[in-house]
Specification:
homodimer, about 120 residues, alpha+beta, Ubiquitin-like (UB roll), four-stranded mixed sheet, two-stranded antiparallel ribbon, 7 strands
Amino acid sequence: MRLSVEEAERLADELWYRNVEKTVIAVAQDYETKEVLMVAYMNREAFIRTLSTGLMHYWSLSRRRIWMKGETSGNIQEVVDAYIDCDGDAVLFLVKQRGNACHKGFRSCFHNRIKAGEEGQ
Amino acid sequence: MRLSVEEAERLADELWYRNVEKTVIAVAQDYETKEVLMVAYMNREAFIRTLSTGLMHYWSLSRRRIWMKGETSGNIQEVVDAYIDCDGDAVLFLVKQRGNACHKGFRSCFHNRIKAGEEGQ
């Protein structure tokens, strides 16, 4: 999915950048398996670049710059579909993931499963 | 899924509360359909209550207090499974959703689909 820069800018104006460093939360979900792959941040510019190129761009809190997912690893995420949540501070992207989403070599960043021990149920 | 308070506290110590108001991002996903229902925030206490009761609790940025999802609407979320992401600042919960997740009457908060107009592709 790709929008014109003007369309992307109009949508960007409707978001609520209330997160750290003026960002919204971006959730990337595999468009086929529905697996949640990763959660990260987008500032206004990253959101516009994502929609106008069709490739996921995030704001890196640690590096303090926009990065295109896969720019070094090649594990890009193509946008298939996108949904803004009811208060505009989070966006869900259905993506076609090339390779793995997690830099640790896992398909998804959410690979640490919480297990209930003997004390739990 | 329910853990003892001690188990929940041990896990809570491993999270990275780097978000607004010392929170982690919590993603609630329907355990059956895999639909992403909502994204919100948990501070340490909300995370512990969630795992020790088996019911989703969040930190409300607007009300500045912990709330149990469904405490007024009845639309509770039972925790079925949970995964911590690779850097510990986000947690994915697979939940059994009673009623709708969105206070606007939609199943999911992500109901505003972005459509590419004539200018886009």
